[in-house]
Amino acid sequence: MPAGAQTVCDTPISHLPSATPSVVMSLNRKGITTVGDLLAASFDEVAYQLDSFDDAEVLIKEAKHAAKENPGSDQAKPKQAQQAETKPAEAQQHDQRQQEEDGMPDQGQDNQGPDKQDQPRHENNEPRPRKHEAPKPTSGQVGLATAMQAVLSLDGGAFASMEASSAAAQRLAAAALIIQYGGGEDEAVAAGLLDTIDPKAPCVDREDASVRFGEPAVDLLERAELLLTVPMSPSGKPSNVHAKLVEVADPSALLVATCGAVASARAVLARYQSSGEQAWNLFKGGRDFAVWYFGSICKALGPALKKAGRESLSHELWSVVRALEATGGEDRKAA
Question: To pair with 104 at 20 to 30 A between CA atoms, which of 61, 88, 254, 292?
Fold first, then answer.
């Protein structure tokens, strides 16, 4: 079947074996929701959305197989129904009266009810077991899957280097926190695209991200990054401008920023536990700057989180910041 051909099949693409939640979301964004839509689309378009020619070929092959097994519209009607539609109205009325007189149902000779008539049977007349449909993914599962796709699609790939792998782990941890605290798809994607503690990690191409995951997610990413940028006033204290930004921040941006801060602080703490004092080389100001920065974020976002009814997330942020403050305490006292 050539690409672009009009095929009537209303089976959702989520029923195809290789259609993961992230694949379904990527294609749905382009209006490809059914097997018929998938077969009508061009191969290049599908391959671009999946970011893989091999995956596109497998998915289209499954779609063709599904279209043969479950054709839609007129193709799905039995021959008896199609012939009935072509009969004149008088002939159809005669057949209906004849069926009423005989006391027989419209289809089949055994009055067994629709469930038994429609149930497929083996050659020995035993009913075949019905195929169990795959459960539909929840919004949280779709959000996390889309965030994973966002992280793995960054320039250089998640496993191109040690820095890229560490950054991917941090971004996925932030996205997982979003799902844990009831966030949605756009929030999970935004958290997965936040900058990481490692300056050598792959960066996000905003224009490409807007095409792949939608402008709402990228707009949310930018609002969250504003909350994570703490400008310092001449007095050495956080600027009042940042405090005002936090006061008027929307709940989604507040959630993404906090989950990103928790994931970043945990990444710094893990680096310190494995590498010791070398972990502070990630920051120009060393440990003092790291503790100051995360402490300032905590003091700014904490009250806003409690006001928004997210006390548990605020407590989680405070806990990891206190752990950072306690790093190297004995060595510094000895010095």
Answer: 88
Tokens of 126: 């035993």
Phi, psi of 127 (to 5 degrees): -65, 140
CA distance 152 to 50: 12
Domain boundaries in the chain? Answer: 13-73, 139-334
The span from the first CA to the last CA of the chain, in angstroms, equals: 76
Residue 162 scores a pLDDT above 90? no
C-alpha span between 168 and 119 (Å, rounded): 48
Question: Which residues have C-beta within 8 Å of that of residue 120, sequence separation ≥ 6?
Answer: 127, 128
The whole-angstrom separation of Cα 43 and Cα 31 is 15
Pick from 310, 284, 295: nearest CA to 261: 295
Number of Cβ atoms within 10 Å of the Cβ of 236: 7
**What stretch of H or E contains 299?**
helix 286-307
How many beta carbons lie within 10 A of that of residue 176, not counting itself?
18
Q: What are phi and psi of 238, to 5 degrees?
A: -55, 140
**pLDDT above 70 for 204:** yes
C-alpha to C-alpha distance for 69 and 223, rounded to whole angstroms: 48
- Sign of the Cα torsion 206, 207, 210, 216 reads positive
* 225 contacts: CB under 8 Å, gap ≥ 6: 194, 195, 257
Radius of gyration for the chain, computed over Cα atoms and rounded to the nearest angstrom = 29
List beta partners, residue 34.
12
In Å, how far are 17, 148, 187, 312 from 192, measured between CA atoms? 26, 7, 9, 21
| Residue 37 clears pLDDT 90, i.e. is over it | no
Measured distance CA(283)–CA(287) in Å, rounded: 7
- In angstroms, the CA 80 to CA 101 distance is 20
Considering the segment(s) 139-334 as one domain, its CATH architecture is Orthogonal Bundle (1.10)
Q: What is the DSSP letter of 154?
A: S
Helix residue ranges, H only, 158-285: 162-180, 185-192, 206-213, 215-227, 240-247, 251-275
pTM: 0.59
